[in-house]
Amino acid sequence: MTTAAERNLIGESHQTRGVFTRRRGIQLGVTDDVFDRRIASGAWLSLQPGVCVVTGTPVSHRTRLAAALMAVSDADDRPRGRIAAVSHSSAAWAHGLQRAADADRLEITVTGRALPILVGVEVHRSVRLDRCDVRGRDGLATTTPARTAIDMAPRMSRHQALALVDDVIGMQRGGTSWVHRRAVDLAKGRRNVAYLARMTHPDAAGEFRSWLERAGSQVFRQGGLPRPRWNVSIYRDARLLGVVDALFDPAPVIAELDGPRFHDSPGQQRRDRARDRQLQIPGYAVLHFSYLEIVHEPALVISQLADALSAHRPALSR
Prior knowledge:
By secondary structure, the chain is α+β, with helices and mostly antiparallel strands. 45% of the residues lie in helices and 19% in strands. The strands form 4 sheets. It has a 4-stranded mixed beta sheet with strand order 9-10-11-12. The chain has a 3-stranded antiparallel beta sheet with strand order 1-3-2. The chain has a 3-stranded mixed beta sheet with strand order 4-5-6.
């Protein structure tokens, strides 16, 4: 028979995805003996030490993250002032940063000397988990996108880490100046974070507006192509035709790098085609390359650009 204290506990858990703690149950009058009997009988399912749900409650990825945080924050032996937050690949998943997300991995970060032991959860200890690095996301304390990118940077190559920062900024999950400030503050002891601080400095990499352009620049350089000018405004009769990604002047060859963030919508594709027609009138050759081509088929990119540059050399010499 369910007691009034149990009903109150389960009623409260509707606000926390059905998750409840032994500690809160005892506060409401549910004894340790009742907890143990409910778990032993299979009526309640233990997700973490001292954290349960009623058996049959849907247990999602978010539910498991909530249980991990509750196990840390509601433990009897928790250090005073401890901060805990969903972090790393789990935070990337929560923020929609697919480049670093992993829905099969549970990760949280905590402050304090001793690490709690949780079931199936990677627990990271951090000396610095400031309040400005944590925000609520779908009811869970989660590291901010900027802090998430900084935490993930040591696992990634420099290009991957910078691409993740571009995702944060491009998805309007944070600004360049804020990423820069946090990277400066947190660089010590973290691989690639000092690099992120340099690359997000207001005076750094001004000619490159996206990770794809930086990756394209590396492809062009490694392929032995001439160095183009980036983000160039093209005019005809004092009228702006458009701003192009890469111009290989003096040859009238333009390379446009079409990242999914900016070029996938039908409206943007129509605008791109209309601009290409305007650029062709004064004789520019416009070649478009997708994200997949830049990243996975660099030889194709180099070959097509080299052919275009070769085709325009005779015209330049006349």
